Amino acid sequence: MDQIVSQFLLKSLHIILDSRIPSLYPNDRGGYTTSASRAKKSDKWFNLALGDRPTALDNLNFWHRNLKDPMIIDIILVHEGPNSSSVDNLYTSTSTKAMVETVIERWAVHYECPRVTPNMNDSSAHKKIYKKLIVLLRSLYCQMRFLPAYRIFRQLNSSSQMYNFDIIYKVSSFSDPFSRTEEAAMEDYIFSPVEASSGRLCVSVTYRKTLSDFNLVPAASLFPRIITDYVGSPATEPLRSFPSSGKVVEATSFPLREARPPSSSPFQRPHSWTSGFHKGAPFAQVSPPVYHMYRSPSPPSDFYGQRGPYSRSVSQRAISCDDYQLSPPFSPSPSHSYSPSPPSHISGCNTSPHHGRSETSPMNIPHAAAAGNSRYSSPNLSDPNRQHSLPPPSPRNSRLDPSSQDSPSRIRSYRKSESQRSAELHFGVANHYTGHKLLRDGRDDSGRFSGLLSSSGSPRIGFSRSSSRLSLQDDSDDCEFSCPFDVDDVDNSASPARNNPDSRRSSEPSFATMGAKSQDAAVGVLVQMLRTAPPLRQDPSCYSSPSLNMELGAGVTTSSGFFLPRKTSDALEELRSFSEMKNLLLSKSGARLSKEED
Amino acid sequence: MNCEVCHLKDLEVEHYEIREVLRCILHTIIFHRALGLVRPKEIDLELFEITYVQCGDLKVEKKIDEKIEQLIGWVEKHPNKKSQICLSFYEVKNKQASWFTNKIERLYWEHWYVNLNVVQQPKTAYARSHSSKDIVDSENALEERSIRRACLETSLREVLFQIIRFVNDKKDHVPPIPNREGAISFPYEITIPSSSDSAFGMDMIKRMLQTGHPTMLS
């Protein structure tokens, strides 16, 4: 009976998350429905084959030790607060918009077992109970599609558009009751409980009758965001995982970030696609306690990273713009989820608890870049030591398409980040990098672990997961280092915090000194760098890639403007680095050829 | 085992809406009764913002479509009449030969009645409207149609909720799942009770024979 109950819990969680959380799966799951014969054994429970279970479910057994605890699943809508307007979106930095989390559905699955009875192995009774649970799960599956939240889930799931909202979830064995106003807007539905000899299984839901109160619109009209520290595309590395960021989120309150977790390390870059060697032991240390704690950050209001098939693994990153700017890596602030109030030059960086992104105007590129960072950290720590190999540029370019990031700087920084990533990968630029990481990770860790800390003291155990759609942000958030060829000089005019041009410059000669992990990757990187080097190619065609054409339309005229302030000396330096790289590659290919001949 | 009957709420539909509405309802019911291994298939209705779930069995889909076509044919022949479609689940019992019939007995344990009122929308002269009055009329008609459509969507949702409630409230009468391959665990049939002219009497007698008089059951 216990096995039936635990499988029932898993199955119901699977059904619920499957129908509500858009980015639960890294890949398109459309294919599974056609392969009738390949159902896994675990999927056949209750005769309802749903496909692969999300990784979160594998954790369920870990945290839900006591079957008698209720499993409360909150489906939370992250949306713009009431003080935002679409006009603001267009003209001002959107940092003033608060992202609000509202519980739109609360599912409760509970095995009510008032008395301890000996485990009766009455198989016929078990069969009857099993049959009834099958029927119950069928109707749960249907009901998921009849409730109002399903429509917005479908909206988010359609990959053609970006929206100004997101759906995240939180699973716990405890939930704060709703406020009166919330309750007034909600309705209950209780499925008939299934009686068992030792208790009964109950499923119920409290759901919002209507979601039309929320301003849930496509984000197409929003201003492009600039990611100056864009690192790369998660599409190219679906296996990459990030440590999770943990926070137990209540519907109406925000946890305090009390202390920095001891296991955070300056070498952790939980939210970035950086080179594999950075993700070493520190991640391993971090992963066990953090794995079950997930922060549920809200997406930036005006930047919605692409919710790609891989977004699940990379979407959970906790980075805020303030990490980038502020020297103290973590500044506890009860009212802000991740960051204290930003300094004045980050004019747009808002103080909303869920809005760590800098929402400054496009001029302030580094801030915006930091703002472009995803604030979600992936819960998937399955392989912290994964090797990093650069993908070919084109898949990453194509990932840009659905993104709302339209600025040329972003495009550049995207490419920069790719190159930078390769630089990091191949050449191990560390000093400034880790310095920035410290800032960033501090923030992230604090965000990630506060949930752990706060929850450890409380009787409730829970974890929440963000279904971020900010996969591109994952790439962007750690690109503090730009390609050596990027136009930081231009962008720096308004960004005093961009303090790593020197590091970048210093990284250039290092190309020649360290070996590439893979020849092909190095070649790809070189090609990328050559293509994106602004001073060498003064025409906008350097950004011409089929998927970026539409974004270039707006950016072309301004991109040349970014080129102007570059000096000849910079160009010469870059040329020098090009030739160094070329020599390096030639020498390596020569070495390889000779190796192959051996 | 008792036989549970569920009369679903009446729905007022236009001719072109019959197919979608019936598919939605019938598939939802069958999904709850196809207790074999299923891979649920979600279908979005085109006319309404409703997504329903099919059990994924192609034979079921085909059978449902056939019956729907039958009903549509009947509706065309009998305009402005209430139509009904009945989905029944039964068990097959090998009854001993009795003096009524040698047939294999069908023991019905569930009947679902879907009630439709097919309304004929008055044809508005869209193409031939010359006067402003005609235009206003056609606009009104469109508005009425959309209002009616919205009401139908709400009613359809209520019917689907009704199905879920019924399925959840009454589980005891469901027979044990036989060891069969495929999604469909229980045999079913879809009938159009109003299609036969002498329907009522014959149906009653048939049912009596099939389910058997209590004194005849061994």
Number of domains of chain B: 1
The separation of the N and C termini of chain B measures: 14 Å
- Counting DSSP H or I runs of 4 or more residues, the number of helices of chain B is 4
- In N-to-C order, the SSE pattern of chain B is EEHEEHEEHEH
Beta fraction of the residues of chain A?
Answer: 5-15%
Strand content of chain B: 15-25%
Structural class of chain A: alpha+beta
Question: Main β-sheet of chain B: number of strands, strand sense, barrel status?
Answer: 5 strands, mixed
Which pair has the most extensive contact? A-B, 29 and 28 residues
User: Which spans of chain B of ≥5 residues are poorly predicted at pLDDT below 50?
Assistant: none
Overall pLDDT score of chain A: 59
C-alpha Rg of chain A (nearest Å): 25 Å
| Quaternary form | heterodimer
Broad shape of chain B:
globular
Task: Write down the Rg of chain B.
Answer: 20 Å
The chain-level structural class of chain B is alpha/beta
Number of strands of chain A: 7
Describe the structure.
- The complex is a heterodimer of chains A (598) and B (218).
- Chain A is α+β, with helices and mostly antiparallel strands and 598 residues long.
- Helices cover 38% and strands 9% of the residues of chain A.
- Chain A has 20 helices and seven strands.
- The radius of gyration of chain A is 25 Å and the shape is elongated.
- The model of chain A is unreliable at 27-38, 243-362, 364-513 and 540-562 (pLDDT under 50).
- Chain B has 218 residues and is an alpha/beta fold.
- Chain B has one domain.
- In chain B, the strands form two sheets. In chain B, strands 1, 2, 5, 6 and 7 form a five-stranded mixed beta sheet that branches. Chain B has a two-stranded antiparallel ribbon with strand order 3-4.
- In chain B, strand 3 (41-44) and strand 4 (51-54) form a beta hairpin.
- In chain B, helix 1 packs antiparallel against helix 2 and helix 1 (18-33) packs parallel to helix 3.
- The longest helix of chain B is centred in the last third of the chain and has 38 residues, at 132-169.
- At the A-B interface, helix 5 and helix 6 of A face helix 1, strand 4 and helix 3 of B.
